[in-house]
Amino acid sequence: MAASAPALKNRLDYKAPDFLSPEIYLEFDVRDGETFVTATTRIMKNGQHNNPLVLDGRKLETLEVEIDGLPLAPVTGYEIAGETLTLHPASDSFILKTKVKIKPEENTALAGLYKSNGLWCTQCEAQDFRNITWFIDRPDNMASFKVKVIADPSEHVLLSNGNLVAQGPTADGRHFTLWEDPAPKPCYLFALVAGKLDHIEDTFTTMSGRDVTLRIYAESKDKDKLDFAMDSLKRAMRWDEVNYGREYELDLFNIVAVDYFNMGAMENRSLNIFNTVYVLAHPKTQTDSAYAGVEGVIAHEFFHHWTGNNVTLRDWPELTLKEGLTVFRDESFSTDMGSAAINRIENVQYLRAAQFKEDAGPMAHPIRADEYESINNFYTSTVYRKGAQVIGMIKTLIGDQNYRKGTDLYFQRHTGQAVTCDDFVQAMEDASGYDMSQFKLWYSQAGTPIVDTSWTHNALTNQLTLTLTQRPPVNKPNNLPVVIPVRMGIVTSQGRDLPLNAQGDTSTVLELTQDRQIFVFDNVPAGSVPSLLRDFSAPVILNAPYSDDELRHLMVYDSDGFNQWEAGNQLMLKEMLAQIDQAEAGKPVTVKPAIIDALRDMINRPGMDKELLSLMLSTPGYGILAQKRAAINPEAIKAVEDAFTTAIRTELASELMALYQANNLQIPYSYDVQSVGRRALKNTALYYLCADETVKDPALETLAAQQYNGADNMTDRSAGLRALLRMNHKSGTATAALNDFYQTFRNDSTPLDSWFSMNVTYARKDAIQVANQMKQHPDFQNASPNRLRALIGGVVSAPNAFHNKDGSGYQYIADEIVDLDGKNPQTAARFVDFFADFRKYQGPWQDQMKAALTKIAQQPRISTDVDEKLKKILGADYPRKPAAIIAPAPNGP
User: Fold this and answer.
1) Has residue 350 been placed in a domain?
2) What is the pairing mode between strands 19-31 and 142-151?
3) For 146-160, 463-477, 561-575, 688-702, which range has the lowest pLDDT when averaged over its residues?
4) CA distance linking residue 425 with residue 439, whole number of Å
5) Scanning 120, 249, 384, 545, which has its CA 20 to 30 A from the CA of 603?
6) Are residues 422 and 531 in the same domain?
7) Cβ contacts of 97 within 8 Å, gap of 6 or more
8) Boundaries of each Peptidase M1 alanyl aminopeptidase C-terminal domain copy (predicted)?
C-alpha cells in the first residue's frame, strides 16, 4: 500500500490544539503476542470553535470507543482514516474511553511499545505514543498520567512514570502495578517497562532534606556493572542543585538499561530508559571512554527533568530548547567532573567532525528549523551540539551570574509549561539587560560563520592592532552578521600571558557584531602572539595567519588548554593539507622535520598533562581533512594519513617506547583523571609503535600480545588487541587474541559489538566480505541497533573497502539501508548520512555514491525518514517517481 509523500511542516504555521487532555488513565494488559491498551481520557475543548476532535494513532486495532460511557459505532460514531480517528463530540468537556490491541512483538521499528529480547519497552519521542493508543500526540498537550500495568507473574518488574501507589495480585492469578505521575507532561515522556530485570538501589537526600529512592534496572548478568551509573546519577543530582538550584521533587527515580534501543537514552519523566552502552560500566568490559559516556549521558537525561520535562517545548521545531540547553548542561557537568581542557577538546572535535560537516552540506539547517518532513530526522548534531554552543555563547556574553539569574527566571516563569526558544532567550535578556535581538540570528541561520583575522604590531607605540572579519559560509551567502564572542589573550615571547587591563585579566571577550571590526591593545611587547578563540568560545571557522613558529610557541606556552592543543592541531592540519595536494599531483608525500620536532618538544616538556599530550600526538582524522578539501580524493587523504603515522612512528620510535614503558604501570584499575591520562598516553604510544602493517617486528607483536593478555581492564585489553590487528590481522597471534576476546566476552553485549566491528574494520580491503560473513554469525541474528551500527560502521571505518573506486562499499551500505528501512526506518535513515557530502568527492567516487543513493531512492517502497534525506542530498538528481512512501499499517475498525 502506498501513500503520497508527506507535506512539509512549517514552524510558523503553529496553531494551538483544538482540544486538550489534562488527565489520562491507561491500563495495559500485557500478554504474549498481543497487548490490550485501554485509555480513559478527560478531554476539554480549547477555545471557542466547532472543529472535530482528531486523535493520532498508528497500527492500532480499535476495539472500543466510548464518550461519557456511551459506546460509539464505527463510521456513524467515529471515523478512522489513515493515522487519525475523528469524533464530533457534543459537549465541551467529556470522558473518552478507547480500547485497542497492539502487537509489540512485531514492532521491529522499536517505536512505541515493543518487545525485544524478552523485554517490553517503550520509546515515544518524538511521535510514537500514537503507536500505543489514540491520543492528541503533540508536546503542547500535557496530561497527568495514571497507569496500571497487568502482566503474568513471570514478568516480575512492571514500571511506569511517577510514584508507585499500588501493586499486587489480580483475581485471575496475574499481577499489577499502579503508577501516578501528578505533574502534567507531554505523551512523548510516557514510559513503560515490563520483564525479568534485576536492580540496585540507593537513596539521595535533596537540598531540602527529602529522601529520593534511586533504582537502576538491568539484566541479572549485568547487575555488577551498575554502580558507576548510580554514582554518576547522584553526582548529577547534586550538581544540578548547586549550579542551577534545581531539586528533584518526586519520591522515586528509575533507570532501565536495554540492549534494543534506537537512541542513546530517553528522559521519560522519572523512568529513564537507556541504551546499555550508556549505563553499564565495569573495568573488565568497558573502556575509559565508555565510562565517560556513561557519566555524561546519565547526567544529560537527568538534567532533562528540568530542561525538557518540567519545562517542555511547544512544538517539535523548538527541539533545541531542550536538547541544546541540556547538552550544554551535561558538557558543563563533565567539565567539572574531569579535565576542563580535555572535555572541551573532545567536544569540539566531535562538533567539527559531525556538525560542521552537516552545516556545510545539503542537510544544513538552523538549530531551530522552520520546515521538516520527518521529525525523526531533526535529532541532529546541529540541534544538539551547535545548540549547546549557542547556550554557551549566551553565558559567555552575559556572564556567569546573569546566566544563573536567567535560568532561575526561566524556571520561575515556565515550570509546567510548553514554551519556545524565544521564551528562553527573553528570560536571559530580562535577567541581564543584554539586547539579544542580533544574537537570535543564531537560532534562524544555518551554516558555520567564518572569521578571518589579521594583526600588526607597532614597535614604536607597542600597540597590537587586531582585525576581525566575519563572513557567511559559501553555502549560505545571504546570512547576516551574527554576534560572535571571541575570547582571547596575548602570549609574550617569553611565554607569559599579558595582562589586558588594570585588573590583571589575561583573557578578554571581544564581541564581533559587524562585518569587520578593529581592536587595539596597548603595552604589547614585540614578538607577542595573540591567542584567539580561547576555549573555542564560538562555533566558527577561524582563519588566523599564524606562522609555524607562532603555532609552536602557542603549543608550548598558551595557558589555555584548548588553544594549546589547537595550535598543534592547526600545525599538523596545515601540513597534511599541503601534502594531500602533493599526493593528488602524483608527487611523493613528505613530512616536514618541524612537525616531528614540535611533537618531540611536547613529549620532552616537563609536567605535560598526559591526556593532553595524547591528543596532541594524534593527527587530524579523515573527516576533518575531507572537510577542508574542495574536492575529496579518499586515496590521497589515506596516503597522507599513512605517511604521517609512519613518520611519527619511525622518527619518534625511541620517545614513543619510553612513553609506553613509563606509563605501563602494573597497578589496579582506577577511573580518575590521572589514570585515564596515563592509559591514554600509553595506548597512543602503542598505536604508533604498532601502526604499520608492513613492518614485521616480533618484539612489537610480543609487546601488544603481552598487553592484551595481561590487562586487567578493557581500555588496555582492547588497545592491545587493536595493535595486533593493525600489524597483521591474519597472524596467528592476532587471530588467537581475537578468538579469545570473543570467548571471553560473548555474553557481554558492548564488548561483543566491538568484536564484530574489529573483525570488519581490520579486514581492510576485505571488510565487505567479512561483514557478510559476520551477518551469518549466530550472535548477529536478531541484531540490536547497536550491533548493526557496529557492523556497518566497521565497513565505513575501513577506507580501502568503503571508498573502493568500484563502488562496492557504497553499494553494500545502500543494500543495508534498503534492507533495514522496512524494519527500522530511524536507524536506516542515520546510515544515509554516510553519503551526505557525496558532491564534494572527485569524479569516480561521486558517481558511485550517486548510483548508490539513486538505487535507494528507486525502491518501490521507502520510509519518510529515508526519503526526506535522499531528497535533500540528491537535490535535482532525486529520481522523480510515483509516490511510494511506506504507508503505516491500516488501523483496525
Assistant:
1) yes
2) parallel
3) 688-702
4) 9
5) 545
6) no
7) 38, 39, 40, 41, 64, 65, 66, 67, 69
8) 548-874
401 found inside a domain: yes
Number of domains in the chain: 3
Non-local CB neighbours of 211 within 8 Å, separated by 6+ positions: 203, 204, 205
Tell me the pLDDT tens digit for each residue of 321-361. 999 999 999 999 999 999 999 999 999 999 999 999 999 99
DSSP per-residue string spanning 823-841: T-HHHHHHHHGGGTTGGGB
How many of the other CB atoms lie within 10 Å of CB of 204? 18
Separation in Å, CA 581 to CA 423, 503, 584, 604, 623: 49, 48, 5, 32, 17
E-only strand ranges, 285-382 = 312-313, 371-372
Cell digits of residue 850: 550517486
pLDDT per residue as tens digits for the range 265-283: 999 999 999 999 999 999 9
- Among residues 444, 463, 485, the one where a domain terminates is 444
pTM: 0.96
Degrees to nearest 5, angle at CA 514 with 508 and 518: 55
Q: Are residues 338 and 400 in the same domain?
A: yes
Residue pLDDT, tens place only, 180-226? 999 999 999 999 999 999 999 999 999 999 999 999 999 999 999 99
State whether 358 and 390 are in the same domain. Answer: yes
Are the C-beta atoms of 435 and 426 separated by less than 8 Å? no
Q: What pLDDT, on a 0 to 100 scale, did the predictor assign at position 2?
A: 35
Q: How far apart are CA 146 and CA 162, in angstroms?
A: 9
- CB-CB neighbours of 443 under 10 Å: 22
Pair 551, 570: CB distance under 8 Å: yes
Domain of residue 399: give its range.
312-444
Question: Is the sign of the CA dihedral 43, 146, 142, 104 positive or negative?
Answer: negative
Residues designated catalytic: 301
Cell 553485549 belongs to 749
> Same structural domain for residues 269 and 357?
no
Report which residue type is found at 861: R
**What is the C-alpha end-to-end distance of the chain, expressed in Å?**
18
The domain that holds 469 is classified in CATH as 2.60.40.1840
Task: Say if residue 414 is in the same domain as residue 468.
Answer: no
**Crossing angle (nearest 10°) for helices 421-432 and 400-414:** 130
pLDDT at 635 over 50: yes
- The CATH number linked to 397 is 1.10.390.10
Query: What integer pLDDT is reported at residue 880 of this predicted model?
Result: 59
- CB-CB contact of 264 with 277 (8 Å): yes
Domain of 12, CATH number, reads 2.60.40.1730
pLDDT tens column, 286-301: 999 999 999 999 999 9
What is the DSSP code (8-state) at residue 515? Answer: S
Contact (Cβ atoms closer than 8 angstroms) between residue 656 and residue 687: no
Q: In angstroms, what CA-CA distances link 201 with 116, 217, 338? A: 25, 9, 26
Q: Provide CB contacts within 8 A for 563, sequence distance 6+.
A: 531, 532, 533, 534, 535, 554
* Contact yes or no for 17/81 (Cβ under 8 A): no
Work out the angle at residue 673's Cα, subtended by the Cα atoms of residues 668 and 679, and round it to the nearest 5 degrees: 55
**DSSP H/E element including 868:** helix 864-874
Q: Say yes or no: 218 and 108 in one domain.
A: yes
* Element of type H or E holding 601: helix 593-604
Segment 110-121 shows an average pLDDT of 96
Whether residue 180 sits in one domain with residue 49: yes
Same domain (yes/no): 193, 330? no
Residue 270 backbone class (left: φ over 0; alpha: ψ -120 to 50; beta: rest): left
pLDDT for 887 beyond 90: no
Residue 396, SS3? Answer: helix
**Residue 368 belongs to some domain of the structure:** yes
Residue 181 domain-assigned (yes or no): yes
